[in-house]
Amino acid sequence: MGKVAFVFPGQGSQHVGMGRAVAEVDAGRDTFARADRALGDALSRLCFEGPEADLQLTANAQPAILTTSVALLRALDRTCDVTAGHSLGEYSANVAAGTLEFEAAVALVRKRGQYMQEAVPVGVGAMAAVLGAEAETVERICAETSGVVSPVNYNCPGQLVIAGDAQAVAAASTALAAAGGKVKALPVSAPFHCALMKPAEERLQVDLRHASFEAPKVPIYVNVDALRVESADAARDALIRQVSRPVRWQQSVEKMLADGVTLFVEIGPGKVLTNLVKRIAKEVERVNVETPADIEAARNAIAKHR
Predict the structure, then answer these.
(1) Is the pTM of this model over 0.85?
(2) Angle between helices 89-96 and 58-76 in degrees, nearest 10
(3) Are 105 and 94 spatial neighbours (Cβ–Cβ below 8 Å)?
(4) Could you tell me which of 83, 94, 197, 283 has the fewest CB atoms within 10 Å of its CB?
(5) Which conformational region is residue 231 in: left (phi greater than 0), alpha (psi within -120 to 50 degrees), or beta?
(6) Following DSSP, what letter does each residue of 256-291 receive, concatenated?
(7) What's the alpha-carbon Rg for the chain, to the nearest Å?
(8) Are strands 82-85 and 220-222 parallel, antiparallel or unpaired?
(9) Are 114 and 38 in contact (CB under 8 A)?
(10) Residues 182, 231: Cα–Cα separation, whole Å
(11) Whose CA is closest to 249, among 177, 138, 161?
């Protein structure tokens, strides 16, 4: 049989009400309680009730998505053969693999969100989605544009994201549109995964170096290299480097497919990764677990691949 991959969403999937249903299950209730204790505030109430403006803040959205994902993972109560996550989701993948304890992960991503927001003043940086352009074209135009701008998310064929300083992103967006791409500015508070995030990476590195990492129980396919890692040091190093470098999601999925993955189970709020995997490989089976109502179908799909 084929391999089962658990994949976890990143920032942007948050919404008020997420996690409320799974918190009615023992495993989910316990996960949210543990997050509240680890952070010293009512993250659970923010997830369930909002306000939305507070949930959207990077320092809140990141631990909120992680906690919801891990609550659903524990409620699913199944194991995977490999795991991966999109940006922030790589922390959920490390929890799933046993590399990081949940409380350590939720505290780390709270700091990660704070550091990323503080690295660049609001309005100085920008991000834009680029649709319908080849990766090589996006890379070339960014390289030819003055200022800091680069591809930062390789999501799926024909869908990339660029980030950098606002003027450079605007100039590259104009050039990409002239080259036939469809460009859409993204409503984000910071230019994630570009060179402007280096100060955040340097701050987070200190925290990650002090955190306890164990060897993963299953391989993790990391964003920064689109390769599998199987040691504690490699998992930690990947989390450090990903802050200021691109998320190579398409390449990671292609590598998992080449290594025998036949089922992708997205665990967490939304269906972003399920849809991206479909665009990367239409033939591969995909299920998502967003509420307890999705668990039975996911368990059945997993059983078929065992």
Answers:
(1) yes
(2) 30
(3) yes
(4) 283
(5) beta
(6) HHHTTEEEEEEESSSSHHHHHHHHH-TTSEEEEESS
(7) 18
(8) parallel
(9) no
(10) 40
(11) 161
Four-residue CA torsion sign, 281, 220, 267, 131: negative
The residues that bridge with 247 in the sheet, in sequence order, are 153
**Do 116 and 60 touch, CB atoms closer than 8 A?**
no
Catalytic positions: 87, 193
Residue 50 structure tokens: 């909002």
Cis peptide, bond prior to residue 51, ω within 30 of zero: yes
What confidence tens digit (pLDDT) does each residue in 6-41 have? 999 999 899 999 999 999 999 999 999 999 999 999
The length of the chain, given as a count of residues: 306
Q: Maximum CA pair distance of the chain?
A: 54
In the chain, what is the straight-line distance between the N-terminal and C-terminal CA atoms, in Å? 6
For residues 267 and 41, give the distance between their C-alpha atoms in angstroms, rounded to a whole number.
Answer: 24
Which two structure tokens, joined as six digits, stand for 234? 């490699």
